[in-house]
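DM from R.C. (forwarded with permission)

"hey, sorry to bug you on a friday — could you get me a structure for this? deadline for the figure draft is monday and I only need the backbone to look sensible"
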Amino acid sequence: MPVFLDEHFIDADSLTLFKNLINKEYESHISTKEVFFNHAQQKLYCILDAPNEQSIRDFHDRSGITCSSILQIQQVTPGNRDESEKLQVIGELAARLAHDLRNPLSVIKNVVEIMESKQKLRIEEKIICYGRLHRAINRISHQIDEVLDFVRPSKLTIANNLLNEIIISAIDKIVKPDDVKINLPNNFVYVPCDFIKFEVMITNLIMNAIQAMNNSGEVDIRLSDDGKYATLQVIDGGSGIPKDVMPRIFEPLFTTKQIGTGLGLASCKAIVEQHKGIINVTSSVGKGTTFTIQIPKSNTVIPEQSASNKTTPPQITMSNQ
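My reply, with the result:
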């Protein structure tokens, strides 16, 4: 039965008329649930169950009561509450994404203006400009993919991947500040995983580490393999995570930063769980944070390297914006 709120202009003496109407059910199936009287404004408000607005007006006419207005109350149910919360999340996410896209779009705009202002660019200048455009476009693509995967998670495409290659690919998509050094692992580790999703996860963890260090310091990336689990660690020497913040770091949309969608670490956790893995974090305020990811190994045959053909991991030249 719909719920309504009606309003009456009335003096205190007329309240007696209403007392006989309260908490009774009438032939019109109208039931008065609550009555509120505003002495200052001489207004009386009733909350009623009724089939429709017209049935209330007809009932008032039969009872000799004048009604100034009737409003139907929108009842909060689990269904429409969930829908409202979803719309709120989408709105907040859209606002954050729009804010974050401004930075790479500004980079693209500035590079285009530089290229337009100079009729002839040296080869070195072209390489720098194209590099900045490439990284800005990658950043936009990463942010959009992150949001889409949060809204509509995609299926995994599992292959036996070399983690070192995924790390290098992730670093290539990051605009690394000049004062940041990323230390790569010296050992090879293979893991059955979705290359693209792992690339997104590692990119998020490295960017999170860089931001935690205020764009200055060293990020250590370590790999290990005990035969049962492949383990990845991303270690920074940043400000650390306060104890009161730690329980919420993997919540979607939660962030303590001025920029960001708040999906980075939530996305990391979701990707790890999709791979049936575990993600842990240890942190000390003022000293730094370590994220540890463990992914179970499958029955996939992992290539063995003989002592004669072992090599060091591929080298990477870090480029800056």
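R.C.: lifesaver. The chain has two domains: 3-73, 78-305+315-321.
me: no worries. Helices lie at 15-19, 53-63, 78-117, 123-151, 163-172, 195-212, 264-274.
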